[in-house]
Structure formats: C-alpha cells, structure tokens
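=== Structure Prediction Worksheet ===
Name of assembly: unnamed complex
Input type: mixed (protein and possibly other molecules)
Chain count: two
Listed entries:
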Amino acid sequence: MKDKIKISERISRIVIREICEVEEKGDRETLEKWFSIKKMNRRIYQRLRSKKRFNEWNDLYSSINVDNDWELISRKIKGKEKKQKRIVWFRNMAAACVVLAIVSGAIALLLKSEKLSDKQLLATYSSPTLILDNGEAVSLNAPSQVLQLSDGDIQVSKEGKLLCEKSNAWFDKEYQLVVPRGYNYAVQLIDSSIVHLNSGSVLSFSVKEHGDKRLVALSGEGFFKVKRDEVRPFEVTVKDETIRVLGTSFNVHGYNDDDQVITTLVTGKVKISQNNNKHEAVILSPREQLCWSSLKGEVNVKEVDTEEYTSWMQGYVVFKDARLEDIMMQLSRWYDIDVDFKDTRLKDKRFGGKLYRKTPIDTNLQLIETINKIKIERNGKQVTFSN
Amino acid sequence: MEYDRLKYCFDQFYPNLCLYAHKYVQDIEVAKDIAQDAFIKCWDRLSDFDADAALKVFLYRTVTNESLNYLKHRKVEIEAHSILLEEEYMEEHFLENEVYLWLRRVIHELPPQGKRIIELSLEGARNPEIAENLGVSLNTVKTIKQKAYKTLREKLSKAEIFLFYQIYSRPGITLS
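=== Predicted Assembly ===
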C-alpha cells in the first residue's frame, strides 16, 4: 500500500507539472513504467492532465457557496443540539479538552505547511497577532512592549502600534497582521506609511529595503496614510481591486462577507482598477468615493462626507440614513456579536446617528431599539432583532 | 467548541466532498445534499473522531455510500454500477480531487496578475491573446508567466499534495 501511495504522489506531481507546462528529467520514464502496471493507468493520466477537465472541476468548485451551505446545516445542527447537549456535557468537556489539544496541534502544523486564509486567521486568533513567514505567531496584545523573536526583536509603541524597523530582523520577509473582531490596531510600515486597521481585518505586507513597488493586501477595513515616494508607488490589493497611490490618505472598506469594496479618498490622489479589466481605471479626487460591487459588476463614484467613512478610527461611527443591516455589521465587528434578523424586512430599516465604540453594547442596542421601535434581545454573543 | 471544529472541517472538506459525490451522482444539487447530510451525521458522533483526518475518512466513506445508495434507488444499470465500484475508479476520483484542489489553492495564492495570466492560459489562451486581454506587452506576459510557474514549481517541491494519505494508510478503514 505504501508503494502505491508513493506512486500516486509521483504521478500527481508529474500531472501538475504538465498542467504548468514544465517537464522534469525522468518524468517520461516514470509514466511509462506506471502505464505498464495497469492498462487503465494511461487513461487515468490522460484524463487528469486535461486542462479542460481541470477548468470544469474548478468552475464547479467555485460554484459551491460554502458559507451559505454552512448556514443551512448549522441551523439543522443547532436544532439537534438542544436535545442532547445537557446529558453528555461532562463527558464532552473532557473530550473537548482533548480535541482542543489536537486541533491546536493541527493548526500549528497547518501554519507550518500551508498559509491559512484570512478568514481562517481571524477565526484562529482572538487578539491582534503578527504572523511571520515561518509561521511563527506573535500576540501583540500588550502595548509598549518588546517582543522577542527567534531572529530579532519587535517594538510595539505606547499607543499600541506596531513599528517595522530598519533592521535585518525585519527585512525581506512577508508578514500578516491579524486584527480580530473587537479590536483596532495600527501598523507603521517600513516606509513610514501608517495603516489603521478596523476590527476583523487582515493586512499582508512585506518589508523590503529596496524594490520598485510597495505592495500590501487587505481584507476588511483600513485607513491608509501613505508616505509620498514618487519612485515607488504604493499598491493596495483588496479582493479583486487594486489601488495605486503615490502619497495620500484614504479609507478602504472591503470585508470578505460583503461583495463591495468602498474606497474613500481624503487627501491626495489614487488610481483604482479592477483586476477583471472590464472597467477602466478611475482616478479619485479628495472627498470622492468609489464603490465596486463584484456581484453587480458595477463601479460607482460619488462625492461623500469623508467623516462618515473614517470616524471608526477615532472610536465612533456616524451613520446617515444607513440600513440597519449595514449598521449592525459594523457593531458586530466592534463587539464581536452575531446578529440575527427574525424578520428580514428589518434589515432595510434606515436611521442615522452617532454611535461610540466605548459605549457598552447594551446601551447602544437600547438606543437602536428605541429609535426604530423594534425588539432586540441579547444572549451572550447572539443578538436577535424582531418586530 | 465542537461547533467550531465542525465549522473548520466544513470549510476544509465540504466543497471537495461535493465534487467527489458529483462524480457519482452527476448532479451538483444532489451532491451537495449528500455532502451536507454527511456533516449532519458526523455531528452526533464528533467526539468519536479524535483527529480531523479520522473525521475526513468518515465523511468520505459516508459520501461514497450515500452516493451509491442514491444511484441504486435511481435504478442505474448494473454495469455502470460495477464500474463505479472498481477500486481504480475511486482512486482516480481521489487523485483528481486532491491534485486539482492543490492546483487551485496555489493558483489562488499567486499575486493577482500572475493568477490572472495562469487562469487565462489554463483556459487555453495563448500569450498574445492574454497580452491583448490584459492590455500589457507580450514580454510582460511571458515574464510574469515564467515567474508564476517558478512559484508553482517551488511550492510543488515543498508541498504535500496527498492529504488523503491518512485515508489510505489507516488500517481497518476501507471505502466501499
């Protein structure tokens, strides 16, 4: 059996290489040998290496909406849970501890072997964390500290801001800054540009002394103050959109759980293009906002009050005639809660106002309850809206 | 905690299980139902599986059995059935799923332009077409393509493609 696995492994590598249009010495011989074992093998191989087959597979894979289907089965499971949970609670506690140990072991292994998606990262870490390219994860919870790394130290400033320093320990590596729900965090990049990250965001960046571009990737929301450097443009990739800047400040909102990327320019100039190349690149002027909806395939530019889109950095948000669902999306990231609308029409209720992050969650919920004349119930992290 | 674990496994294995079932039932909606039922089934006995690999075995086995059951009920001809049951056929499914999944993942990790170029070239576009489509020069396409293939090759030399090792190498568990 072991030999069989080894052969399969070798054959798949050859197949992948072939799809990638490269051939290595000995590939032919290995294949011929494998074909001679069983008649069927040649057919298997020919089918596997077909680009068309891969494309069909890939399209089908993309058509599966994992989040949507998870909602379906999670509802069914929750219905089941209530009946059994209580009886086996103690037994489960012990089992759960074992599972936790194994799962965290598995996660550590995964971190080593393959990169986690932003979504997985956010689910894995409960406080702001810096991931190094060797898989090492450093918690950035306490401000004003020096973090010891295997090959150097990292400074975290008094205000709780991560500082990339011009030292060999930082250079030529890839980093991911994970800011889970319930936190805000800022990082000063090596070129002195500053990025403020809103709750539930991941910023991927590399630290290079030279190079012709400054590249970062964001999922979630961030406010960028980019240091002017005309020789080395600064590029932000958000989902399938790229924002190119020289030196400016702007806000980007592009969470993975909604289909829009909203870029609001405060000062300077930015050039935004969608990677599908169906739309022309757009240059924004201050106070302009570009909204790209991948679902509708639409690009819209309008003038806005920038405060509405940048105030989250100061710990409050201003809503003007905003949809209740959009407002709750922001609050759910701040307070790490999940919102359930019993009546979906409630999502479209509109109201405006100013909400502060430091205000206890229940006070804010009460406010929303009174203004909108609806019923809000909170049970731990679960918040339910009903008529 | 159990719930989080199931969610994690769902994100990891669900699409792949759908595609695996699809190979048998040839209807993606039915395939999704079968895959979802497998997760609901394993929820009751989640604590029986101490490692995610064991859970994966259970899920694949359940999906295989349910797919075959479905075909039986649909009264698909006996011959087709016996082909499906052949070991090679199942092996091929595994092989295809894991190889393609790996390929998909590494392509997704490429920088946006490299990703786009590889995707287009896998769709059968030639370099000049890609250059025109993306509005860049032919040389740029060639350079980026080479770079992307190099990245893929490097990843290939490091990666363990076969997560399903565990499935095969676990004693006492067969798939049919």
